[in-house]
Amino acid sequence: MAAPDSTSIVIPAYNEAASIARVVSELAATAPWHQIIVVDDGSIDGTGAIAAAAGARVVRHPYNKGNGAAVKSGIRVASGEYILIIDADGQHPPAEAVRLVDRLGEYDLVIGARAPATQANLARRAGNHLLNRLAGYLAEHHIPDLTSGFRAARASYLREFIHLLPNKFSTPTTTTLAFLKAGYSVGFEPIEAARRSGESKIRLMRDGVRFFLIILKVVTIFSPLRIFLPISLASFALGAGYAAWTIATQSHVTNSSVLLIMLAVIVFLVGLVSEQIAALRFEGRE
Fold first, then answer.
1. Where are the domains of the chain?
2. So what's the architecture of 4-222 in CATH?
3. Reading across the β-sheet that carries 109-114, which strands appear in turn?
4. b vs e for 128-164, b when ≥16 Cβ sit within 10 Å of the residue's Cβ?
5. CA separation (Å) from 114 to 3, 26, 103, 189, 194?
6. Closest Cα partner for 112 from 142, 145, 80?
7. 20-65, pLDDT tens digit by residue?
């Protein structure tokens, strides 16, 4: 079990002057944390100064690099054995931070899973549900909240995947899938998140596509056949079915059927080679 005094808190913040002081103060009041780090990602509203006045150690970016870059900066300077990441918008209840950290030891990564009702609107809830289902299929694990930024993990494990984290969105998606596919234990702790303070910087259509591509990228790194095999099977089934139909109705096999079956074989072989390359990446890993 992890303890607060061995846990560094990392708070990525961009123009969160309205909420950052309350988040830092409430976190400091919940437990004697090893340190509270606010990464001011090029804010222009005084977020960094307000966080420093509230008692946080502030790491400043000279310009806005993105949420992922801010999280990476916080991970690099954190000196605690464990790291808890929490958003600066006030959505995640600081009082729940101790509960997440307490689960470390039983799990390698603990995620604060938000109730669907706390999502901003119906479209956001539907989009997150689809992403959760897709990620759960590809990772072969039930994922109730893929994009929650409220999470705790051992610092050394987070640093193991720091090169995979995107500078923009979504660090939560990448860490969740990377931990699952690497064989680490991932737990989801239900939390009641509040409405965020201010306007969300995530846009459903634009960032939904990014989340989808991140899911495919991370799963391809760790388990490529989860993507290549369904495509291969679909192509083979379509080609074989079309061939059977043309044989029954026209007494011959068309070029389209042959091409679809060949595509199925090629995609399967590429997936098989990719799977071996993915396995080689982890040879000798501690």
1. 4-222, 225-280
2. Alpha-Beta Complex (3.90)
3. 57-61, 35-41, 7-13, 82-85, 151-154, 109-114, 186-191
4. beebbebbeebbeeebbbbbbbbbbbbbebbebbeeb
5. 23, 19, 17, 9, 9
6. 145
7. 999 999 999 999 999 999 999 999 999 999 999 999 999 999 999 9
Burial of 286 (0-12, 13-18, 19+ CB in 10 A): exposed
What are the tens digits of pLDDT across the range 220-269? 877 788 889 999 999 999 999 999 999 988 888 889 999 999 999 999 99
Closest residue by Cα to residue 13 from 56, 33, 29, 3: 56
Neighbours of 273 (CB within 10 A): 12
Region class of 137: left (phi > 0), else alpha (psi between -120 and 50), else beta = alpha
Q: Please say whether the beta carbons of 10 and 85 come within 8 A.
A: yes
* Contact of 204 with 169, CB cutoff 8 Å: no
List the one residue out of 87, 107, 219 whose CA is nearest residue 153: 107
Cα–Cα distances in angstroms (integers) from residue 104 to residues 65, 82, 181, 264, in the given order: 30, 9, 18, 43
pTM: 0.79
With beta carbons less than 8 A apart as the criterion, state whether 95 and 26 touch: yes
Query: Using CA atoms, how far apart are residues 103 and 86, in angstroms rounded to an integer?
Result: 16
Closest CA to 74 of 62, 64, 63, 86: 86
Q: Count the helices and strands in the chain (H runs, E runs).
A: 10, 7
DSSP conformational letter for 15: S
Rounded distance, CA 101 to CA 121, Å? 29
